[in-house]
Amino acid sequence: MNDTVAPCRMPTEAGPAPRRITHGVDIGGVVVGGGHPVVVQSMTNTDTADVAASVKQVADLWRAGSELVRLTVNNPESAAAIPRIREKLDMMGVAVPLIGDFHYNGHQLLANEPACAEALAKYRINPGNVGFGKKKDTQFAQLIEFAIRYGKPVRIGANWGSLDQALAAQLMDENHARETPWDAAAVLREALIRSALDSAHRAVELGLPRERIVLSAKVSGVQELIAVYRELAQRSEFALHLGLTEAGIGSKGIVASSAALAVLLQEGIGDTIRISLTPEPGASRTQEVIVAQELLQTTGLRAFTPMVTACPGCGRTTSEFFQELAKVVQEHVRGKMPEWKYTHPGAENMTLAVMGCVVNGPGESRHANIGISLPGTGEAPAAPVFVDGEKTVTLRGENIAHEFVALIDAYVERKYGSAASV
């Protein structure tokens, strides 16, 4: 194997471990691995055959910051819809690469819909669901042959919930013969890793270049995911896609994903991520994209939008005004980033602080590019603003929110505008 493992850092060093060196995989112009930044991806939950609904959701995910979007391709209608979805997205200027998610019948769908095979930027294959019995190897080979024919990369994505049962049974039998057998969980982890690795090596034997393969081996438990990917990283030279297979709903899904992925990313493991949140009823699908971005940004791997440090509140901050201002600021900068990304590059690295009283307010505000220290209970009704560590103005009255947002916009224009970048 040709893996290069990132060197260990001293415990006192800040920031994520150096990235693993992997082959860069070009997915419709977005490169995964090979030292490139970790890529955010997401998946639609519309009926892919509903072209209008799928186009809208893909566009929403892309605008939120998803760099790759995966769609289910499970029947002839969804396969026929893919090129139409691609065409409509292109007309809208939404150039996000599309990934086709295939289970059971992908070999048939790609054979019958060559336009679908061409329109997709990558195919996702689950080795546990590619076929059963004698058909498994043949159908896997057919999918790889389509990838070779159309020049597409492939994610070989093994999954705890659809593990190759024949391989699992084989490894269980081998385990019984060991002098000191592994526990059942270790055997199943090994089966998951072997399923991904064996399939990847088979794809290479069939002629698919190594630099067109991404691996994943997903489970739902945090500690299991960390263990699986540590082992997979040691034993493979392929780009790795990270994510819990079913993270859960609300705070549970966010916490579980962050707990697992932060550990791996800190160790330099992982080249692309998805946060598989169950959406709250009626909530936007884009939440999973925002969580992925915030995870990468808080671990220091990427910058997507200005980071807002905000006071949690205590008995000194009985007013809700600082909470309201923090929300206004957060929504304002996130709403402006699609524009600033092109007109004011670098603004995503900006730090902001909205603090609620004199205890930590001035200090935290000085650490930010722009910070405001609001008056706590019983304090003088004045809000000093600090810009790059220096107090510049004190805001008072009913228009503090409007004036502070205006100061942010002026700072972005001054520091990250076209004149500043020349």
Automatic annotation (TrEMBL):
Listed GO biological process terms: isopentenyl diphosphate biosynthetic process, methylerythritol 4-phosphate pathway; terpenoid biosynthetic process
Textual note on the cofactor: Binds 1 [4Fe-4S] cluster.
Needed co-factor(s): [4Fe-4S] cluster
Pfam family name, one: GcpE
EC number(s) from the headed UniProt entry: 1.17.7.3
Alphabetical keyword list: 4Fe-4S, Iron, Iron-sulfur, Isoprene biosynthesis, Metal-binding, Oxidoreductase
Domain IspG C-terminal: 308-409
Top-level taxon of the source organism: Bacteria
Catalytic activity: (2E)-4-hydroxy-3-methylbut-2-enyl diphosphate + oxidized [flavodoxin] + H2O + 2 H(+) = 2-C-methyl-D-erythritol 2,4-cyclic diphosphate + reduced [flavodoxin]
IspG TIM-barrel domain residues: 22-292
Pathway membership, UniProt: Isoprenoid biosynthesis; isopentenyl diphosphate biosynthesis via DXP pathway; isopentenyl diphosphate from 1-deoxy-D-xylulose 5-phosphate: step 5/6
Gene3D superfamilies to which the protein is assigned, alphabetical: Dihydropteroate synthase-like, Sulfite Reductase Hemoprotein, domain 1
Binding site for [4Fe-4S] cluster: 311, 314, 357, 364
Molecular function (Gene Ontology), one example: 4 iron, 4 sulfur cluster binding
Function: Converts 2C-methyl-D-erythritol 2,4-cyclodiphosphate (ME-2,4cPP) into 1-hydroxy-2-methyl-2-(E)-butenyl 4-diphosphate.
NCBIfam families: ispG_gcpE (TIGR00612), PRK00366.1 (NF001540)
Assigned protein family: Belongs to the IspG family.
Identification of the protein by name: 4-hydroxy-3-methylbut-2-en-1-yl diphosphate synthase (flavodoxin)
Lineage: Bacteria, Pseudomonadati, Pseudomonadota, Gammaproteobacteria, Lysobacterales
Gene name for this UniProt entry: ispG
